[in-house]
Design goal:
heterodimer, A: mainly alpha, 20 helices, B: alpha+beta, five-stranded mixed beta sheet, two-stranded antiparallel sheet, 3 helices, 31% helix, globular
Chain lengths: 485, 105
């Protein structure tokens, strides 16, 4: 195994841990979050509901950075260089997280809602997967890389935020591209007039198409009543674990087996050799798998803590608490805000972009996405938004303490890829109802098969993205050669 | 316009051919045939450069790759296995990591 000779020699003399500049910064960030939390609590103890998002975000950021948990790397390394390591780690993480999600569901604390199943998920995944190859990071990957000092990843976050905000609120001639049956169906929903559902393609798409679809976990589809059987046997075993094992076997057979047998000098492999090969493939993804366990435990805990807080404050959504505290601007017309109660990335980023555009005078609330469903709160009161900020800060703390933090300025080429890819990711995330976390990871692990549809689309998009990226590289290096001649 | 070209291409990847000896922890003295400096480059460039090196070098030659991109640093040993090459060592220094790979098993 490569880990055996993975001899990492640290060239820095051991000094006091706090004497190192980067560790001082790490402690500084922790202190700032602690002081900020105390300040918020001193104003109103109910802010604890928002702070829970920040704290869990920080933990996620640390695990993401530790495991280099990056869906983009999983897809790209697989197709561009034939390395299955991150894809394997991701699959192990999915399997482990699903067991924890089932435990939370049986405990009655799950805040999960299944996504509507339909072709749009495949299409969204495809566009999203194409985008991540160019940005070099998925939605959560860009957050933790931003925490490592990667300025290109920060541009990706900006692009995702604004492309989503523009996409869900735009209307114009392209509304006419929507099938008339969707428009009729949207108007038939009898929504409040201020939303203008017949205007704006995303409104027509949501009200006229997605709302007519059904979303359910497999246990719900099959009508399994016993919560233990439903969560563990149907949702976890059938929807998550068995497909995961199938994918792992496929990855082994296609990408790992040949190289392993050649290294081990085995010409006629027996079943035992394959078992050892599988194990070697798993252990090379150890860090990602460990991160997967950690993310699973804490993502489950977050659902539990948020559920318990909702019980305690007798609320169903953070919007009710905000209005009780007197913050009524930015709520949706149902007096709600986006408040998933679990690990989610893209919707709160759309709200950042939307809020800024609204401050610039663009009307952003005459649509379903912001106006009816998610609201457009001030970023300072956006609870899931703080989860994303927490991810950046948590990743920065761990990167600093591991001396891996480094400001990396993108070249113009990387910056352009970040902006274009990020725009595509935002588009795909809205069509597919989430990113690789909200539409895939959190979805399949809770027994909703629509997540696999997203993954299939994302894999195909990633494959096409790698092809396009290679074409670009070849074209560019051909041009450079010409210049040198 | 030269500054625009520099910005477009970013910090240049440099490949030097000079042969030199380095002492690697747990391996001993090793002759390095080529040195690839891709500090500042992010995924997938370091991985692609590794593939290019393995393609260009002769069986048994060792090359050194400098990177400060943690994700690449962790992937490259697995990539070496896929390319049927040997990952000798990864050494941490102030700028980032130096990865040593020998072509062939």
């Amino acid at each position: 195994m490569s880990n055996d000779n993975h001899a990492v020699a640290v060239a820095v003399e051991k000094e006091g841990w706090l004497a190192q500049r980067s560790n001082q910064y790490a402690v500084g960030i922790m202190a700032l979050v602690l002081l900020g939390s105390l300040w918020a609590l001193s104003i109103d103890t109910r802010y604890v509901y928002l702070l829970v998002y920040v704290w869990f975000g920080m933990v996620y950021g640390m695990f993401l950075q530790y495991g280099r948990f990056c869906m983009a790397a999983a897809v790209r390394d697989l197709f561009a260089v034939g390395v299955p390591r991150m894809a394997v780690g991701m699959m192990i993480a999915v399997a482990l997280y699903s067991i924890i999600a089932a435990t939370v569901t049986v405990g009655g604390f799950s805040t999960f809602h299944p996504n509507a199943m339909g072709w749009h998920i495949m299409l969204g995944g495809l566009i999203f997967g194409f985008g991540i190859v160019f940005t070099g990071g998925c939605a959560s990957g860009s957050l933790y890389k931003a925490g490592e000092g990667n300025v290109g990843s920060m541009l990706v976050i900006v692009a995702i935020s604004f492309s989503q905000a523009i996409f869900v609120s735009a209307s114009g001639w392209f509304d006419r591209l929507m099938p008339s049956s969707w428009v009729e169906s949207a108007i038939a929903k009898d929504m409040p007039e201020e939303l203008a559902v017949q205007e704006g393609w995303f409104d027509i798409f949501t009200a006229g198409y997605v709302w007519d679809l059904k979303g359910a976990t497999l246990a719900e589809m099959l009508g399994v009543a016993n919560p233990f059987v439903a969560s563990f046997l149907v949702n976890t075993l059938l929807v998550t674990i068995l497909p995961t094992i199938a994918i792992l076997l496929l990855l082994y057979a296609v990408y790992y087996k040949k190289g392993y047998m050649r290294r081990a000098k085995i010409s006629a492999p027996q079943l035992g050799d394959h078992a050892r090969g599988m194990w070697s493939m798993f252990t090379s993804s150890k860090n990602t798998a460990i991160a997967g366990i950690g993310l699973g435990i804490f993502a489950g805990l977050q659902m539990w803590v948020t559920g318990a807080l909702r019980d305690h404050y007798q609320i169903y959504n953070f919007g009710e608490m905000l209005s009780a505290m007197g913050h009524t601007t930015g709520l949706s017309i149902q007096d709600t805000v986006f408040d998933p109660g679990y690990w989610y990335i893209t919707t709160q980023e759309a709200q950042w972009g939307g809020w800024i555009m609204q401050q610039l005078g663009v009307s952003m609330t005459d649509n379903i996405f912001f106006g009816l469903e998610n609201g457009l709160p001030n970023p300072l009161l956006n609870a899931p938004g703080f989860m994303s900020i927490g991810i950046i800060l948590g990743a920065a703390v761990l990167a600093l303490s591991r001396r891996e933090f480094k400001w990396k300025l993108p070249s113009l080429e990387t910056a352009m890829f970040a902006l274009i890819g990020g725009t595509l990711m935002g588009l795909g995330a809205r069509i597919g109802m989430g990113c690789n976390i909200g539409a895939f990871f959190a979805t399949v692990t809770n027994g909703d098969p629509s997540g696999w549809v997203f993954l299939a689309g994302m894999t195909l998009g990633g494959y096409l993205g790698v092809k396009a990226f290679n074409l670009w590289i070849e074209r560019r290096s051909a041009k450079l050669d010409e210049c040198e001649l | 316009m030269s500054w625009l070209k520099r910005l477009w291409q970013g910090r240049k990847v440099s490949i030097t051919q000079e042969v030199r000896e380095v002492e690697l922890p747990g391996v001993g003295r090793v002759q390095v045939a080529r040195r690839v400096d891709c500090l500042g480059a992010v995924c997938p460039r370091p991985q692609l450069l590794t593939m290019q090196m393995v393609e260009e070098l002769a069986e048994g030659d060792v090359f050194e790759l400098l990177s400060d991109n943690p994700t690449s640093v962790e992937t490259i040993p697995s990539l070496a296995m896929v390319l049927c090459s040997t990952h000798l060592a990864t050494v941490r220094d102030e700028q980032g990591w130096r990865i040593y790979i020998r072509k062939g098993l």
